[in-house]
Design brief:
mainly alpha, flat
Length: 127
């Protein structure tokens, strides 16, 4: 067995064991918890989901912009003769870089405005 197969096997066994104990334990805990605890649990998962979504958006935007920059740098530093196709691909790369950068900027500003609005709402609704 290769190292990858061993790791896959260990992860599978741990997943089966954790699932066989964690799922019944969660169901038991959920059935015995109060509505206040259930609401706090839902809010926790909502916050975690939002943070994971934002992290994925930030990572995706950074990866797309970095890829576009790498393609432009690769074109500029290339010593191959330039053809019409190369120029077309450079223009497409520049256009996609501009679009991804613009969308990333819009998303970052949108997230900041959402946070600012939520902070203002929480100050108003706080006792």
């Amino acid at each position: 067995m290769t190292g990858f197969e061993v790791v896959s096997l260990v992860v599978g066994i741990v997943g089966v064991l954790a699932g066989s104990f964690a799922i019944p334990a969660f169901v038991l805990m959920w059935s015995q918890s109060t509505e206040e605890h259930k609401q706090r649990y839902r809010q926790l998962w909502a916050r975690l989901g939002q943070k994971m979504y934002r992290g994925w958006v930030y990572f995706s935007c950074a990866a797309l912009v970095a890829t576009g920059v790498a393609k432009v740098v690769e074109f500029v530093t290339s010593s191959d003769p330039i053809t019409r196709l190369d120029i077309f691909l450079l223009l497409v790369n520049l256009m996609s870089l501009a679009v991804f950068s613009g969308v990333s900027l819009v998303l970052f500003v949108h997230f900041q405005l959402m946070d600012k609005r939520n902070r203002a709402l929480s100050k108003v609704t706080a006792p």
